[in-house]
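Sequence, structure tokens reproduced for reference:
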Amino acid sequence: MLTAGSPTVPRIERAEKAEPYRDQILEWVDRCRGNLVRVHEELVAQGVVISYPALTAFCRRHGIGHAPPAPVGHYDFPPAQEMQHDTSPHRAPINGVEQRIETASLVLCYSRMLFFQAYPVFTRFYCKVFLTDALEYLAGAAVTCMIDNTHVVVASGTGARMVPAPEMAAFAERFGFVFRAHEKGDANRSARVERPFHFIEHNFLAGRTFADLADLNAQARVFCDKVNATRKKHLHASPRELFAAEQPHLRRLPLFILEVYALHHRLVDVEGYVNVHGHRYSVPYALIGRQLEVRETKDRLDLYQGPRVVASHAKVLGRTVTRVTVPEHRPPRGTRPSTQPSPEDHALAHADPPVPTYAAALKQRSAGRGTLALRRLLALYREYPRAAFLQAVTLAAHYGLFDLDRLERLTLRVIAKDYFLLSDQDEEPQP
């Protein structure tokens, strides 16, 4: 500087050690699929004297092997404008066994209020269960709910063209918000909810054990209360303090919040159980072979025969296949369920002859107890004209015909012959 007479420090021009090998580096970067460790190994094998840091620095300065990082966007949200929802798979020790769980999370974008729960799987039913619990926890809803094009909510389209499933759109309308989806590949758009999953895995799940999913979700609520009350340096406040300013702007919850439920129809198997999501639940043994309606809620299963509740069970939430048995649903000791006559047996035994004899023969030729076949025979006996049906049963028994579809067609043929006779005057004139 003194010699040059200038206050500006002259720039030192240094030759890059890797520059003479630029063509070789480009060739091996392509052949090694961008793995610079392998590129360095191959260069050394060819006698090139260059250190690994010098190679990586050269590639970084000249953009070889990777694109320079692009600046990320920044989103500002006024109070109650948006909340973000997403799910992520994790593993947690439940009842001494490490199991896969689906963690669902909801974050208010302004205050950063966090709520999360875990489920064995994540379907539309569990999505509605989670969002109901989350909105009750927050005591309101933001105007929009940002999602990541998940099929649980989306019926068709992506991003701005996303169309939610009708049942999910109706659910959102009930709470006063709408679903929005970010464009594919734009993960930064939902960063408010993406970032907490790493925090959940390495702070909440780390070192904790759980008796079951209910215990995990109870501890998750306590953890959310603690995290939401902790001061954040980048916010200069705690989420709970910011939530105090955001809460008056949230959409109010309905005066009455309907319980989320799903309906299933199940046939009681020969052991007196119904299967729901792989778990088996007992019902009174007298209902073997009957079809029941199962009402599934967040933590219970109610089984209906018509309008009458015949069984109720606490819902099994784990992935391990479980059999739930109520002692009162089993037959008394020494009594075999198969010896108890079914209502169909009793009704057909008192029907007009030759129906009782035909029913006994049909039962012998049917699989199991023949409940379904007897039930259909009884329905035919009650629905069709008695005389025509008895005539058809007589013919079927005479020829050894026990196919109920053919018995029904035979009955209809008798009915057509006896009840729809046309005289010459009733015939339509020929054109």
The chain has a mean pLDDT of 87.
